[in-house]
Amino acid sequence: MKKFKRLYTNGSSITHGWPLCHSRYFEHYGKYYNIEPWEVIGDEESLDSRISINWPNRLANILGIELVDESRGGGSTMRALRMTMEYINSNLDKIDDTLFIIETTSGFRDEIYSNRLDRLFNVVTSNCINPIDCTDDINDRAKIKEELESYFKWFVNEHHHANKEATHFLGIFSLLKQLGCEFFIVNQAVKEHSETYYKNIYNRLNIEDRVIDWEGNSCVVQWYWQEKEYHIGKDLEKYVGDTDYHPGYFGHIKIAEHIHKELKKYYGQI
Fold first, then answer.
1. Residues 58-116: tens digit of each pLDDT
2. What would the mean pLDDT of 173-178 be, rounded to a whole number?
3. CA dist 234 to 25, 33, 109, 226, 245, Å?
């Protein structure tokens, strides 16, 4: 029986819990949180830390262990891998009893460093260039978007990005294997990515058994999307539309319970 002291998770909004953690939707979900509206003070992050309803929190509670969740809405796989490496480097004395679960994100996403802002921020390029959490200033955001569109037009393509991401992926998970770390992967990527791009990496590293199985579905979104009650569109249709693919309140419960079931298959007891 494997015993862990902490769970480390990283990924995008599928893991982080957007938009459940957003104060804009508190009125709808407050009945589930058992928190009075006047108790909610501060920004999205402080609310997120209070309600603790995403699947990492639920899974950590099932396992009865500490949680370190560094996921972020709009986050790329590159961000998740970088932050996982930073966590390992800063916590070498803790990794032996830490369970790592990393979500691979979908679409063409990247992490960009801005000299003007002096920090990293996420970029989602699925349909258009969308700089995530770069600045609250509307004018600055518009300028950054304009600059990014030019940069991506002339200096970036998806094939190059995929190769760069694959290199980081190979490096991080090779290190986890070498250090003897316990880790699992949650495929959030769309079917095409899951069955070709990431699958080739898993085969190369011989870590197919570390990829959470979604009952024959290629990724977690495809798995829970079959039941409308589990995705956010059912609960917040008037805000996000009924086609929003993020897991809802009950979707996060379902994901946590399923991952726990898969962990028990692997370890016997946990």
1. 999 999 999 999 998 778 888 898 999 999 999 999 999 999 999 987 666 777 777 77
2. 87
3. 13, 18, 27, 12, 10
**Cα→Cα distances 126→129, 130, 190, Å:** 8, 9, 12
The answer to whether 44 and 21 are in contact (CB under 8 A) is: yes
179-223 tens-digit pLDDT: 888 999 998 866 555 566 677 778 877 888 899 988 888 788 878
Q: 251: Cβ–Cβ under 8 A, 6 or more apart, which residues?
A: 224, 230, 231, 232
pLDDT at position 126 is 56
pLDDT (average), residues 40-50: 46
Q: What tokens were used for 50?
A: 């209070």
The C-alpha atoms of residue 69 and residue 51 are separated, in whole angstroms, by 14
Indicate the SS3 state at residue 82: helix
Give the chain's domains with CATH numbers.
6-17+54-267 (3.40.50.1110)
What is the total residue count of the chain? Answer: 270
d(CA 40, CA 44): 10
Distance CA 134, CA 237 (A): 27
What is each CA distance from 220 to 155, 189, 230, 265, in whole angstroms? 32, 8, 12, 18
Cα–Cα dist 25/100, whole Å: 30
> Alpha-carbon distance 228 to 116, whole Å?
43
At a CB cut-off of 8 Å and minimum separation 6, what does 173 contact? 183, 201, 205, 207
Query: Mean pLDDT of all residues in the chain?
Result: 76
pLDDT at residue 236 in the model = 54
In which residue are the tokens 């691979």 written? Answer: 104
